[in-house]
Write a structure and sequence with these properties.
Helix content: 25-40%
Number of helices: 14
Distance between the termini: 15 Å
Radius of gyration: 23 Å
Largest sheet: 6 strands, mixed
Number of strands: 19
Low-confidence stretches: none
Strand content: 15-25%
Strand order of the largest sheet: 5-14-15-16-13-17
Amino acid sequence: MSASKGPEDVKVVVVGSGFAGVAAAATLVKGGFQNVLVLEAKDRVGGRVHTTKPFTDKVLEVGANWIHGQKGNPLFQLAKQHNLLSGEPSTSKSMCSPHSVTSKDFFFREDGTQVSKTVVEQVCSCFSELTDKAFDDELDRRHRKMTLGGYLDDAFEESTVNGQMVFEWCKRIECTDEACSSLYEVSAAQISNYTEHEGGFFNTLGLGGYRAVLDVLLKDLPTGTIQCNAEVKTIQWDLIKEGESEEHPVRITCENGQSYDADHVIVTASLGVLKDKADTMFEPSLPESKLNAIQNLGFGTVDKIFLYFAEKFWPDDCSTIQMVWEEGPEDADVYKASSEGDDWKETWYKKITGFDTVARHPTALSGWITGREALHMETLEDSEIGETCVRLLRTFTGWSVPEASKMLISRWGHDSHVRGSYTFVPHRVDGVEEHKALASPLPPKGSEPLQVLFAGEATHVNFYTTTHGAYMTGVREAQRLISYYSD
């Protein structure tokens, strides 16, 4: 296939309709490509963006929650330009984090007593300083070789701050940011490759939620561009052999039997799906460097538990209820003891960091849980999860907590079209090398280029884990094709 074709003649199939896929398709259409098809496995568009209205006429975000930073963030610009940001003054995270603890964050021990605000502030401040050092690439040589959990323990021990139980809570919260089972599995040195945009987190989008931002891009796509319930089974590439008159080098076949011939395919499937299916999905097989990247990068699960109550039971000056355990799962000794056997399943709920109030839902709370405990929770009935959470709230606060009248629980780990939440870099893995290997198109340079292209948050060296990272990689791969046909 030569680049002498004009973009209007080129057939491109995009796999997945999350931010990466939709951004790729919208950029191609704007660039003059007329034969663009997006294949989506689910019965809805959006991928890990899932805005829904399960309780009232107000939205909840089952998936992506935040616009991470503002300066230089294309999704923040897009949302601002289209008036999709909330008019509320707060731009802080809705989930309580060590970086943003306020007097409205109530920390309770399991005996029902409150942790002093002074202790919380001192420990959280220390934790934030230590994580900032890692993100700013300021670790000393011995800490660079450690896991993130190991480094934090070591550095906290050297500090003069007391409050080990609150520090364990801080590590549990960080697990949510990293989408990992434990910080003892994450590289300390590698997280400096992750780049934060300046400006606060925007967590409360306008009335349309995150879906409204996606809709801005969807408006650029001609009707019928996206086909839902079209799970891809195989991607055959390099079909043109010398001397053959075969017109298209790529054939995409879906589980429903439909197949599509194309000049190019942009694969935006999650790293979780690639871990699950890369071995069987591609013919010929992916190069070893790409298969290694898929295997070596981490892809963790973060779940939300939404509880809706008939009436509010917490005081007005409380915005989060945080749970501090005597023996929490991110305590080094507890983690070591639980690395063998299944005893941790009995106390899966200890991985829940706490319960936060939910924007526009005055009687709802949301809990956060990560890693293997989240995966185990996903196998339980909603009723058992709800009862456990209400029991925790009663035990920790001592308040009169009614039963939850409704609940909504995400199960991203068992969702066969996602298999988790987002990417992290495990201990002893070179993140930059693996992200780049995952992003490189096929066939490799030197032979006929650009048949299979890869996008999605896991393919971005600096903005992995984020929606803007996903968006930027979709634009990146579309631009790669646009350049190919304009050279």
